[in-house]
Amino acid sequence: MTMSFIDRRGVLKAGGALTLLGSAGAFATQLAAAGEAAAQAATNYKALVCIYMFGGNDAHNTLLATDTDSWGRYFAARNIGFSPIALMPPGTAPTPIGQVSPVTGRVSQPYTPESWGGVLPIVPATSQPVPPATSATPPRTFALHPFLGPLQTLFNSGRLAVVANVGPLIQPTTKAQYIAKSVPVPTSLFSHFDQQGAWQGGTETPSNAGWGGAMGDYVSGMNGANTVFTAIAPSGNAAPGGLSLFLSGLTVRSYAIATGPIPADVISAIQGSSLLTSNLAPSTIASLIQPTGSTSNMINDYGAIVSRSINAAGSINTATAAAPATNVQAAPAYTNPFNGVSSPNSLAQQLQAVAQQIANAPQLGVNRQVFFVSIGPFDTHHSQNLGQPDLLGQVAQALAYFDSALSNIGGADLRNVVTTFTASDFGRSFTMNDSGTDHGWGSHHFVMGAAVKGGDIYGQYPTIGVDAGSFYNPDIVGSTLIPKFSVDQYAATLGTWFGVSDSQLAVIFPNLKNFDSANLGFV
Amino acid sequence: MLGRTNGGFGDEWFPRMSERTSNSLAPVGLAALAVAGAVGGAAVVSKAFKSSPLGAAPSSVSPASAARFLTQASFGATDSSIADVRSAGIQGWIANQQAMPISGSHLAYVQNRINSRRTSPNKAAKALLFNESFWLQAVTAPDQLRQRVKFALSEIFVISILNATLQYAITGAANYYDILAANAFGNFRTLLEQVTLNPMMGVYLTYFANLPANPATGRHPDENYAREVMQLMTVGLYKLNQDGTVQTDTDGNPVATYSHDDIAGLAAVFTGFSWYSANPVATGPNNTFYPKLGLLPVDPAAIINPMIPYPVYHQTTAKSFLGVTIPASTTPDPVGDLKIALDTLFNHSNVGPFFGKQLIQRLVTSNPSPAYISRVAGVFNDDGTGVRGNIGAVVKAVLLDPEARDDTVATSATFGKLREPIVRVANWARAFNASSTTGFWTVPNTSAPMLLDQTALTAPSVFNFFALGYTPPGTSTSAAGLVAPEFQVVNEISVAGYLNFMESVITIGLGSPPPGSRVPDIRTTYANEVALANTPADLVARLNLLLLNGQMSVALQNQIINVVSSVSVPASPPAAIGTALAQRVQLAAFMTFASPEYIVQR
Fold first, then answer.
1. Residues of chain B positioned with their CB less than 8 A from the CB of A383
2. Nearest CB neighbour to B591, from listed A277, A285, A295
């Protein structure tokens, strides 16, 4: 935008300096008091980072089974229409634009799988069972989307795991039970808003609290006076929208920050000693924008958010403006593989903001943090080839960047205390519509960190294919993957690592008791 | 100026109300009373009855009541609109507004701006041309009720210029906004059909060039529009009673309106529609059915004109949805099938409460009572002349309802809504008679959280800027089990961003400076306010009326008066006097816009 508004940087310089003067005493005292706790923080710190893929990522084109039986059914279902989305088999070289693909016999075009080359093999440490009724021979083989090269590297280095076929479930659900409606399933399956609620809130409370915030409720006591920084959401300036419930607990609230060097927006009007020559204005305005005793709920609610904004801005901006936060590796630009155009990777920028706050944690006396970053839109009903691969490329680059950045936070490798995982509205239909896919249910997700038991696929990778003739797929109803693992199990596994107790997890996830295991063992 | 007056709806209006039962709007009022009584709202009824403006003689509307009404029914009160409402009466003003011709075409504006340039603007610049048109009309157009309703409709029937294809088709997006304007007081069924066939909606929800199922390959029709037209635009997820409460089964669980089977059935109807062409060609290399790379059609007119059927691509199997089955046929009938589908959606009993509640939420209050929803839904079901879906009548019912008009209801803890950020800026421009130097209203994209977190027709998704059922976690609103949709764009960054933005707007102006200038395009001299700045109480009284409908608390009035008074006005020279008076006005205006009392509309 043009600078028709206040020169924000200038305002912030002035404002920031004043804030520092005003609160330096209190801040120093707080630091001294928290000194020992802060020193402990380095050894007792843990963070969970949720990478939310808004819109519902197509898991079938993210992690693929490459045994002959699965691949054949996959390729037949998705190599159709005027814009087929079937990826090329492992080992296929990219077909230059204009040349005939040996796989499809079509002339390779821009934005087509032929031009990208084959899927990238990964070999899980634990063999996956061969699905009954298929002709696959063990061991079953797997691969990642061709744009997920950085994740292949992370998987092979043992810091990335895949959890197969996870989704919202009330209790274990078979295909027969789903069709017969003999067991309860989450309400409003396939609806963006509601399934965002189920993924972020757990299956029991889809509207009012997120499990990241709920876990934060139990650990925020470890964050001293700065519980406000327990749950942080770097917004990015192009958030793809949707629900961000994940960080909202009963007491813990999502704290929004901006990406870049200045995380908190400072209210300029209350910074100076005067405004428009009135010495009375700054303090009066500071008071009137934070009402507490209004007869209106919404007026008080709004004032409370303004108060949080004001109270936290000084300390977080001060910390972020100094080392080690300033030494956090910068997020790389992303080059669109289709057209070669470079642009900022918003997800990587958000993760840089996360890394900066992780770097700030000792100084702010914070020991447990939950973060929420997002990317999208993955809702690829149409022209999936134009959307999903580019987004997956950004996710892969951002994760690799984050792994690298965390390896050097003020000289320390913090990859063992930060666990990053993906989430999304739902998976997508196995079969295609014309050039894309529709809303689904179960999907595959990534978990990254040095504490993660990586290089493996957790859960049971599903049988591939739709029912046809004598072939019956117990994992797909219609075109929809029925999850094997519940989001609650996925979340509880992360929660246990984070330090939330079994009894606390049972409160956050009341349906957890319906499942055999509350810990999937991937971290 | 007093704090919360009762806005002039005193007991004296009670007799007149009863005298005017032959009034054309009487059925609304009477139905309202009957329904409210039926749900035990006796106390509310008596208050509502007393304060209803329906029978008020025109001159009897107080300035504060007029301003409060205009907060709900326009992009903000002005001296002249307050005078208009007082002169015509609230009901008369609505009638005048609904009879007023549409003030201008966004399509024509955008097209003219593109044509007048030597080089075609890039897509970002084109998107801003629609924003110019939005601001020009929102602030200056006389048909304010249509402007406001059109904006509300754009948040229910959502398309977004954020969509990459729509950015390349900004004339199409502008035309879509014109369609919402044209139907703002029309019939819901017509609106639904025009939205459904609009190529920009076709692109946004991806059902243009939608192919039928192919059992051989497993291909299924795209379900995107079928799902969202039900979930967000017509019937919603759960079966509703007329009062908007959710129907439950014997176990107390909400009853779903539709299943995935209904979505799949309806999706099959939305097959075989694609780009308009004067000479449509369905197949072959010169077909006009498929988009070309980048999703745009062959013929530029296809961005504007409704999509047309290509029967060869329409599914002919039986299609079942919402209890209706279109039997299988050997001859594809896309138009006939579409009619059945849209009639079915339109006639579903959920539409009245579902759509009515959303209009109430956009204009009046986030948590309307069941009785209020029921009264509005009743008008949707039958406007009094046997017509279903009369949006003009629904708008009237929303705004004339006792719950919208009663100043006593307005002071309850749960009444009201957060003013949308761009509505607040429009309030500023209108209240202070701001004008655009260039005439182009060059407001930039304000979607960043550090700005306003909102730009018209630029929602992050089909779920709008905020979801219908959003409740801000951990607040007194959520503790009360209530919703506050607009709070979805309120966070620690955006509250500060808004204050900084308004400080800049109020002290410097709004919008990109014209070429060669460093001064923002949109400014005001605050002439009417500067004239009062020597008497701070009068200045505050004026802002209280124009921006807070006379509802400003005494505490806030005193805070502003004290700060304004702290700027001393010298005896001379005139320039210094002028500067001081302007500073007084800017301080008073900023403090008003900064106050949560203003930000929450009651």
1. 206, 295
2. A285
